Amino acid sequence: MLKEFKDFIAKGNVMDMAVGIIIGAAFTAIVTSLVSDLINPIIGLVTGGIDFSNLFINLGSGEFASLKAARDAGAPVFAYGAFITAVINFLIIAFVVFLLVKMVNKVKDAAVKKEAAPAAPAGPSELDVLLQIRDALKK
Fold first, then answer.
1. Is 60 left (phi over 0), alpha (psi -120 to 50) or beta?
2. Do 80 and 58 form a contact (C-beta atoms < 8 A)?
3. Looking at residue 50, what DSSP letter applies?
4. In this predicted structure, what is the pLDDT of residue 5?
5. pLDDT, tens digit, for every residue of 6-27?
6. Which phi and psi angles does 18 have, rounded to 5°?
7. Measured between alpha carbons, how far is 35 from 32 in angstroms, rounded to an integer?
8. What CATH code is carried by the domain that includes residue 14?
9. Which of 59, 73, 120, 135 has the smallest count of CB within 10 Å of its CB?
10. Residue, of 77 and 114, whose pLDDT is higher
11. Looking at the 3D structure of the chain, how many domains does it have?
């Protein structure tokens, strides 16, 4: 069973998947920063200063100035701003993955076309040329 597991891990697909997961985790951190640090402030500027990440509805008693303050106090909140931010993150990640897959498919198609392209017709071999010369000299 250990040998089978070792063979499974050694397959290229498993290694590719592992690399993809690691890069995906790092990429998620980049996209999260992009959304929270760059896109949300621009959206907030356009919408009159609304910060999506801080939008919430307090379901309990008391008033809180921010979502963090409500969560720190243990108040039940409906944090729809965090959901909006997560949707924006998802859309950006999905779009970038779409572009990456499209680019990889384009490169693969180009490689397949290059492999499938017929080779230039080979000229006569040296033996064929010598036989033609022989036949021509016989005439």
1. beta
2. no
3. -
4. 75
5. 777 676 677 778 888 888 888 8
6. -60, -45
7. 5
8. 1.10.1200
9. 120
10. 77
11. 1
CB-CB contact of 57 with 81 (8 Å): no
- 55-64, 109-118, 128-137: which range is least confident on average? 109-118
Neighbouring-strand partners of residue 78: 57
Count helices and strands in the chain by DSSP H and E runs: 6, 2
3-state secondary structure of 86: helix
State which residues form the domain around 95.
2-138
C-alpha span between 89 and 75 (Å, rounded): 26
Q: For 96-127, how does the pLDDT look when each residue is reduced to its tens digit (9 = 90+)?
A: 778 888 988 898 888 888 777 666 667 788 88
Strands 57-58, 77-78: pairing is antiparallel
